[in-house]
Amino acid sequence: MVKRFSATAWVLSVVIAFTLVFSGAALAKVTITFGTWAGKGAGTWQLLEAYVNGFNASQDEIEVQLVTVASYDQKIPVLLASGLGDDILHIHQNNGYAWREGLVNLAPYLQQSKINPLEYVPGVFDSSNYAGRMPWIPDGLQPQMLFYNTYMLANAGLDNPVNLHAKQAWNWEAFVTYAKKLTVDADGNGTPEQWGAAGFLNRNLFITRQNGGSVVSPDGTRYTGNAPEYVEAIQWLADLYYVHRVVPNTTDSITAALNRLRNRTAAIGHYSPNGRTNVRASLQPGEWDVAPFFERVPGRPWTHLSGNGFGININSKHKEEAWKFIEFVISLQGQLINAAVRADLPIHLRAIASPEYLKEEGTRNMDYVIRRLPEQFAIFTPKYIPDDGEINRLNNAAINSVFKGEKPAAVAFDEIANTVQGILDRLQGQIIIK
User: Fold this and answer.
1) To 5 degrees, how large is the angle CA 61–CA 62–CA 66?
2) What's the DSSP call for residue 221?
3) What CATH number does the domain located at 30-142+307-352 have?
4) Residue 401 CB contacts under 8 Å (≥ 6 apart), including other chains
5) CATH class of 145-304+380-427
6) At what angle do helices 228-242 and 172-182 cross, to 10 degrees?
């Protein structure tokens, strides 16, 4: 009896030991890291942290850890080339294709997933797909909308801009009319106490696209920055300051411009949807509202269909786990996290239309404006030019000369035409069109 009991006990102990070992293995989490340029406490960090917390709580097999990488844009290419770096990388739209050799092609992952493209902003997944290669996927978009002081508009006797937009009359001319009436120089010293608007010149790419202009032709073969559509748009922006005197300067950054609205020295500013967090902190409910960005041609898209997103390090040993995190982020569950934080525009249509994203105390127009933001988007070509840094430098120098009042736009862009065309000629065959 004793011997039989001992044998039975031994068998049971072995079974229990194996059970503990294998159950322990099943419970062991795979830890992967997610690198970002954002520092702790920043708005971008808060959104990423919310994604990470939501994903980690949704399952018990993978744990994602968010880390800040200093000197991000300089360090990541070096790490990728060295076989190092975090499993998941935060990707700025300008880096996505440039870093492609160090990033996993996500197109097969997306195709095999349960993601239904029809539930998303049209074309959003094509925006990061370069001739079949998808090095990254956006998790949010950065359209522009107007923020304005409702009291200032009321005092000037101006109608809600939404009413003009609904009539397809919220255009460049209407904006200038509003800005002139909203500019107030009470003491007549030549420096208005209240500016009609602030910013806009720093978003010249949007304005030129509204007018059908572009620095490079869609097929990547020709310089078109000296074409009438582009020249007219840049000159119109400069004239906001030099002719109409409705903006305080030609140099305000988008943040500086929004701050003028927040401190009540400008009536109209602009920002992406997450700007409402800052405006809400400064102005009282009912003192501010939003409006669609004015248009040149009603219905013409003018915002690049892209934003920041995520890629997977080709050196990662946990690619499948990294994809599960990205899939979570772009799923409706993850996109509702974005909506709750009210950061960039979600890419999932149901998240855009969710109460979490549309609600804003004291505003009348938020629902109208948010629901129309996807109408701004298009995929502009060419998608990638290897030496666009030099082209951008030349183009920005020309723009700055116009904004400084040194020369008219027609002259500034003609002066760089031959140089830019020479760069394009040299790069033919290397430019990615679609």
Assistant:
1) 160
2) S
3) 3.40.190.10
4) 407, 412
5) alpha beta
6) 10
Side chain identity, residue 413? F
**DSSP string for 158-208:** PPPHHHHHHTT--BHHHHHHHHHHH-B-TT-SSS-SBBS----GGGHHHHH
Query: Distance (Å, rounded) from C-alpha 366 to C-alpha 153?
Result: 17
Q: Fold match between 30-142+307-352 and 145-304+380-427? A: yes
DSSP string covering 75-109? HHHHHHHTT-S-SEEEE-TTTTTTTGGGB---HHH
What stretches of 183-318 show up as alpha helix (H) in DSSP?
A: 204-210, 228-242, 254-262, 276-282
Q: Give per-residue pLDDT as tens, 322-366.
A: 999 999 999 999 999 999 988 789 999 999 999 999 999 899 999
Residue carrying structure tokens 């899939």? 327
- Which residues neighbour 24 within 8 Å (Cβ) at sequence distance 6 or greater? none
CA distance 217 to 406: 27
pTM of the predicted model over 0.90: no
Asked whether the beta carbons of 269 and 261 are under 8 A apart, the reply is yes
Check residue 22 and report its DSSP letter.
Answer: H
The encoded tokens of residue 364 equal 């009348």
Closest CA to 309 of 144, 147, 121, 132: 121
| Region 108-133 average pLDDT | 93
| DSSP label at residue 248 | S
* Residue 46 contacts residue 342 (beta carbons within 8 Å): no
Q: Which amino acid is at 230?
A: Y
Residue spans per domain, the chain: 30-142+307-352, 145-304+380-427
List Cα–Cα distances, 338 to 140, 254, 356, 416, in angstroms.
8, 22, 9, 42
